[in-house]
Design a protein that fits this description.
216 residues, alpha+beta, Alpha-Beta Plaits, two-stranded antiparallel ribbon, 4 helices, elongated
């Protein structure tokens, strides 16, 4: 059984497709494609699907991935890409289809580009001048406090027209590892400064393993 990783971009209106709906989308597309994917066993068989580090609703990404399995020993993966793309909704662009190398559990970090309105500059300056940036993070075990400055000491931004843009690398581990969502950073900036949420954009640009290697 070979595990295939479908890497894709999720932009524009596709950013508002939830993980649950995205699973339904890929289930339907793979069924319609006729590709030889593996179905789970049991009373209600369905296509095996696994998404790595899914994003929050409204966030865009250049590096999403979905894993499926196939019993074919030497599948024509270029044909998979050509077959799947026409079925994809607007905003989802398949970048590659290849055998999975690293396991998704090896993901440790993610790069994001965050764009804010010019009015957010005071919030960024205040963040850089503060010694701590405490936020409340909810987990399955309850709520605990996290100091964002431990992971993001500074926000070095640049002005582009009528907006501000900066890049950050944040922990993105699964299981017992640290996983910080950019929404935590935005919520902290909005605590003391009126930043319209609809003017805040998040784009995930790259995933990395815990060892710092590029993931897929």
């Amino acid at each position: 059984m070979l595990t295939i990783r479908i890497s894709f971009e999720k932009r524009a209106e596709a950013a508002y497709i939830s993980l649950l709906d995205l699973q339904r989308v890929f289930q339907r597309i793979l069924k319609r494609s006729g590709l030889p994917v593996y179905y789970t066993q049991g009373f209600n068989p369905h296509i095996y699907l696994s998404f790595a580090s899914p994003l929050s609703l409204g966030q865009e990404s250049l590096c999403e991935s979905c894993e499926v399995k196939t019993a074919e020993e030497k599948p024509d993966l270029s044909a998979w890409k050509e077959t799947l793309q026409p079925f994809m909704p607007r905003g989802i662009l398949i970048r590659s289809v290849a055998p999975a190398q690293e396991k998704s559990s090896e993901i440790g970090f993610a790069d994001y580009t965050i764009t804010l309105p010019l009015s957010a500059e005071d919030a960024l300056l205040a963040y850089n001048e503060s010694e701590t940036a405490m936020v409340s993070k909810k987990t399955k075990r309850g709520t605990h406090e996290v100091d964002l400055k431990t992971y993001i000491p500074r926000l070095d931004y640049e002005k582009k027209g009528d907006s501000l843009s900066f890049s950050v690398r944040m922990p993105c581990a699964s299981g017992e590892g640290v996983n910080l969502n950019p929404s935590l950073l935005l919520a902290h900036l909005q605590q003391t400064h009126a930043i319209p949420p609809w003017q805040c954009e998040v784009l995930r640009t790259q995933l990395y393993t815990k060892n710092g290697a590029v993931f897929c």
